[in-house]
Structures are given as C-alpha cells and as structure tokens.
Amino acid sequence: MNITFEELRRLKHSLPTGSVSRIAQELNRDEQDVRNFFGALKYKGSTTDWHYEPGPDGGIINVHDSTIIDAARRILHESSPS
Description:
This protein has four helices and three strands, in the order βαααββα. The chain is an alpha+beta fold. Strands 1-3-2 form a three-stranded antiparallel sheet. The N and C termini lie far apart (28 Å).
C-alpha cells in the first residue's frame, strides 16, 4: 500500500484523543511503536513498518503492513456521525 507522508500525518491528526493508545492495546503493540508508524521522531521501541521515498507531499510511504492504518480508519469511521 502506498500513501503520502502528508496523508499519513493527516490520518493520525484526525483521530480522536486516545486513539494511539487504543490502537496499541488492540494490536498488542507499544504506544511508541504506533506513534513511530505515524512518523514520530522518537525511535524508542520498534522501527516503522514502511519504506520512505522522498517526493511531493512529504514523500511516498510504502506500507508493508497496513494493520495500524486499518485500525485508525476503523476508529475514524466509528467516530464519524452517521
């Protein structure tokens, strides 16, 4: 899956408060791992599950495992008014 870095950051910033913690708990991952996935500059914990190529809109991210993105999109869908 490919996504621009800007899209990835927009997704993270669109999440309701507490979503990073919720994603980490649901996926049995460390919270910092989830933050790192969304482009945090802290490297404690595991590395990201994507490959970065420089380019427009912050570059292209080739995501190897979309589990975190899928969880984030599900949370956004749940929190959006019907």
